[in-house]
Amino acid sequence: MPIIKRFYITGLLIIIALAGLTSCNDDDAHNPNIDANNWIYDVMKEVYYWTDEIPANVNRGQDPSNFFHQLLSDDDRFSAIVPDYQELKNALSGVSKEAGYEFALARVENSNDVVAIILYVKKDSPADDAGLKRGDVISQINGTTITIDNYRQLISETYNNHSIKYKRYSEESDEYIDKGTLTLNAVVVSENPNFMDTVYAVGSKKIGYYVYNFFSPGTNKTTVYDNEMDQVIANFKSQGIDALILDLRYNSGGAVTSAQNLASLVGSGVNSSKIFYKNQYNDLYQNYFNNQPDGDEALRAHFLDKAENIGNEIGGELYILTGSRTASASELIINGLDPYMHVTIIGDTTVGKNVGSFPIENTKDPNIHYGLLPIVFKIFNSQDYSGYDNGFTPLGENLVNDFRQPMLQLGDIQEPLLARAIELIEGTSVGGRKPRIESKEFTPIMTSIDKKRRTNRLIIEGLKSN
């Protein structure tokens, strides 16, 4: 018999039939992996976007993580399984145990040594309290020099209490100054995605600048972060900005509802009658929703009516700063707004994630703690465009590398991505043709953002399965 389950999609309560669970026989009871893998298989057969490609004969006695990955399509770069669902939920809301800084790893020229360059520091974290800044260069962790051979092990140590040896660039002396050794505690950090907002008066323009680092409505099922987003845009409106720069360079995705809120705040001429995006599911889900009187709400999401909207004030022009980690819900902002306004992207090519997930937990069996993030839908804009599998690439001189040394602080009008956006808005170069700091580009080995559970996620809450 099918099991009837309920879940919410963009605020709509949907009732859908999920296939019954496959039970194991007594001979299999000694292997605890079988129950978990039976559950995983049944869920994937129901919800997975590429359900027709799931192999029938996969060893159900193996480790559930290995089992899950053997079910995936060759076209799937993003489905994920985690050992603990609550850990997954915390990570999607920006809650994790850490010291509070994100970094990129770079190899030292003509050496096997590696350094960690801080990208940004989270407010009110141990790293913030200790005075760490963007651009600081870490050469040792727990007394050991980082190298190409040991960086994976040393990076894992930063999720617990640890020490770092680091340097900071001095503009005055044009060199890196040794800052010694610093001990940092790893604590539970609730990161606020609303990282920075300010207004610049440049020439004849008043320019709003907003750094938003992931999409989450708030922790503990609140909308505190979305409410703060509303206030940021309301403040821009009250200050009379006529141009907006949205910095998503480190934003690797998150909740679709927060993307919907942001797009509704900045889109030009948008309201609840206009379509923001469309979802395409597997045949089972697509047919189900098509046959429901209110199924349109699961297949198409509209903009919200927001009194704070500044689309007209900014003249139907939006400048978005991107990076090689910009993904998912960030790319939805670009694609979803494109039919309604001119979107200029500046920075690096984005990831290219036009598919999304439900976070799924098992609520019936207390022994199965896994959380699943399978790809469940493909997403399109109102003009049925979804062709950004290879990402969005800035054009011409708008292709600007964020990874460089020394790094200017976010919000500094000579920081290269921000400077290019202001140049396009004002029509003149910021600070003259020669920047005050000559920097050198580098290609990161990896970044700490890559390790986040929320990275490359486009999330609709919250499907539960037995």
UniProtKB/TrEMBL annotation:
<dbReference type="InterPro" id="IPR041489">
    <property type="entry name" value="PDZ_6"/>
</dbReference>
<keyword id="KW-0645">Protease</keyword>
<dbReference type="Pfam" id="PF03572">
    <property type="entry name" value="Peptidase_S41"/>
</dbReference>
<dbReference type="GO" id="GO:0008236">
    <property type="term" value="F:serine-type peptidase activity"/>
</dbReference>
<protein>
    <submittedName>
        <fullName>Carboxyl-terminal protease</fullName>
    </submittedName>
</protein>
<dbReference type="InterPro" id="IPR005151">
    <property type="entry name" value="Tail-specific_protease"/>
</dbReference>
<dbReference type="GO" id="GO:0007165">
    <property type="term" value="P:signal transduction"/>
</dbReference>
<keyword id="KW-0732">Signal</keyword>
<dbReference type="InterPro" id="IPR041613">
    <property type="entry name" value="Pept_S41_N"/>
</dbReference>
<dbReference type="Pfam" id="PF17820">
    <property type="entry name" value="PDZ_6"/>
</dbReference>
<keyword id="KW-0378">Hydrolase</keyword>
<dbReference type="GO" id="GO:0006508">
    <property type="term" value="P:proteolysis"/>
</dbReference>
<dbReference type="InterPro" id="IPR001478">
    <property type="entry name" value="PDZ"/>
</dbReference>
<dbReference type="InterPro" id="IPR036034">
    <property type="entry name" value="PDZ_sf"/>
</dbReference>
<dbReference type="InterPro" id="IPR029045">
    <property type="entry name" value="ClpP/crotonase-like_dom_sf"/>
</dbReference>
<dbReference type="Pfam" id="PF18294">
    <property type="entry name" value="Pept_S41_N"/>
</dbReference>
<feature type="signal peptide">
    <location>
        <begin position="1"/>
        <end position="24"/>
    </location>
</feature>
<dbReference type="GO" id="GO:0030288">
    <property type="term" value="C:outer membrane-bounded periplasmic space"/>
</dbReference>
<dbReference type="GO" id="GO:0004175">
    <property type="term" value="F:endopeptidase activity"/>
</dbReference>
<feature type="domain" description="PDZ">
    <location>
        <begin position="85"/>
        <end position="170"/>
    </location>
</feature>
